[in-house]
Amino acid sequence: MLFKRNHLALAIGALLFAGTVATASAQSADEANPSSATTLDAVTVTGSHIKRAAISGVGPVTVIDAETIERSGAISVETLLQRLPASAGFAGSQTNAYWADNGYGTTQVNLRGLGINRTLVLLNGRRIVNGGTGANSSVDLNIIPVALIERIEVLKDGASAIYGADAVAGVVNIITKKNFEGVEASVGYGQTFKQDGEAGSVDLAWGVDTDRGSLMAAINYSQSGTVNMADRAACGLAEVDGKLQCVGSSSTIGGRALLPDGTRINFNQDPNGDGDFYEAYSPDKHNQNAYPNLNAVNPIKRLSFSAFGNYALTDNVRGFAELMFTNRQSDQLATPGTLGIYRPINIAADHPTNPTGQDILLQRRSLKEGGNREFYQDVDTFRTVVGVEGGIGTYWDWSMALNWGRNTGVDGSSNVVNLDRFDNTMNTGLCSSAPGAAIPCGDYLGYGDVTPEVLDYILYTTRDVGGNEQKSFTANVSGQLFELPAGWVGLATGVEVREESGWRNPDPLTVLGMANTNQQDAIAGEYTAKEAFVEIAIPLLQDRFLAQSVTLNTALRYSDYDIFGGDTNYKVGLDWQLVPSLKMRANYATAFRIPNVPELFGGVSEGGLTTTDPCSGWATLPSSSVVYQNCQASGVPTGYTQLGKAIQTTVGGNRNLEPEDAETLTVGAVWTPTFVDNLTLTFDYFNIKIDNAIQRIDGSTKLAVCYNTPGLQHQFCTPSNFTRNPLTGEIDYLSAQPVNAASERVSGIDLGALYQFDLAGMKATFSLDTSYLKNYDVRPFPSAQEIHYAGKITGGRGSFTQWRSFGSLTLEQGPWSGSYSIQYIGSADDINASRGDIGDHAPSVSYHNVQTKYAVNKGFDVVFGIDNLWDKKPPFIQSYTDANTDTMTYDLLGRRWNAKLTYRW
Q: How many CB atoms within 10 Å of residue 547?
């Protein structure tokens, strides 16, 4: 019983998923051929530790199988997962690397939009160490080569009582290929129709399978190229006088300064002009276009080595091992560093470089002479699992495993200014203009005045180091307790001891505040969790009227954390087969999640994030408007206009965080109508409530809520959230640190359809997976007004459009197969924009993809596909992150092709 799992997996794949992304409805297979459930051996499926032949009772599951993965042309896991309708909000990818909370270059999945740290990611049913460049909050999907994946099971249901305290929104279980025999080599390549964004992969796998055991080893390499942001959006746009026009960055290349009377001036920006020239600052004239200095898609390289094996030690005991190592190298292009952000630059009237004859404050000076910065990451991740499993008699199985994962990274940025050295170049008592001077004098007032000697003296490359480590021991037992009139009672129980740690040591100058970048503190934190669980499946009825079978599924998990104490969570579910064609299912569960290492111990840092200031141009609003009255009461100058789109925002950890609790409810039905062969329809309602929720509220949202509250009577209006410069009105402090936002409420509906039929002599499969988000409400603190995210784009948290869908039609005939798929993203309103503004909402968007496969013979396949077939452009929104759109939601690459050759022998 223990060692015959592949037959059931193949049966499930053939009967249910047929090479498509589909909502799991195993019951359609089980009831179409009831005897199959008794002849196929039991397996553990995502959502339960109890081995069973039928998988439809564990909750709503979406499966992405090997055929779908192969035809997709994807070389990264997040490409597959972020297309799912259940995916929402923000998760890292190549197109939003500048906004990645989990570290530049990382990729994740975010189920229900509840956050990447509330989606549990497993590999072959076991946890994976968090990934990134140190003290990270979630798994980096980069570490898992796509070519190794047999299938991905996505449980869209709370499962903390089954798997632990992270599975609040759901579980993504990535299943790797096993029992592979022979050699398989593949080469893939693709690029956009604009001849950029190249993506390639090379995969080689070898395996042997015998009666005693199996061994598989693989090496995988993938690389993706660059797309410059200016090639997708010429410049940053904003609405001016009812029209969109380029606004640029207020970090000017000549230098923007403030005179004592509040007048802003800007220095020479012509490299051949008068170095002492200055004039009144004009955003239209002096702001610079940053987009040529940024990437819409950033390059990444991945090299992986892996091995999976098992061996029968005795007739009833088998040893198994999983080994995986991945190196990721990624980088992101960035604008030249800006002086005046992290340390005030006051230049006296008599300073030899100051032509104004007045004391000035140099507010922003883009150091274009030093060239662009480049962020880089070099990350190693390894994971090893060793264990034994066996059978006890006929009805019981057991397993024990040690799981050790470690992630270490080096990252930093080139062309960063050492601020102490910068000060030295401005100190006439230390610096010298003589050739070869140890400390050359610098002139930063005017573009082209900074000499190469000064640049060599002040610029350097930062180097940060960090990592994550996870060690765990698990021991599980499952089997059948005793037989009731309605069937056998299933039981699974086990224990887990897990140690999690994370650390990050920023560059020494960054820690000391001497680097011209976000000041950061070192992070170091760890915790230990000891957990025990029991899961019971009780058959209540069988072969009764309107109750062909009724099973009660229960689970209880006790968790003890060394830093917060203990908590008990449970899950209760009912699997009710009314008639062979109709099944009802319901699950209710509680969850307990402690703040993770970066949330608790993360060093405080700050960076320029795209933010909308509601007081920009407030004097033009009606005097009766709340925003007008509040901005006036705040002392914002009458002519105030926001300079640029970025505001320095403080982010990082919060040691005052407390644990959060959650309740999840799913109720659904699976219907296989008797009047249509091979059609399965699913319906699932979900409702998730999180109390004492750990939540980061974006700066734009805080400002919008504050200034739209009469009398500024809102907690977001306090100095702990933001402050303004009393002279200019500019925001000089804005916090987006996580807090225990009192509550989050999410509810909606998932719909699924799977239909297999014959079409003109071809085997056809139609699949549709749709998600409707009814509400996503966040109450930042008790008694506060709720923020409604459903149907909104948020400017930093991604999109929470109410409708998302993914459908596909797959055709197979002889050696040919192909699929046409459509990803639909519904319309959404910009949560920070005023109604009537250009870009106050995003229309619905559909991406069409076509893939085809030709099997030349049993050992040679050719796959070709085109994504975004109609070259759909991303919509403009007011609260865009980059490229004038929401980079968390919309495609920046455009139409692109991919091809792959696979040979087996």
A: 15
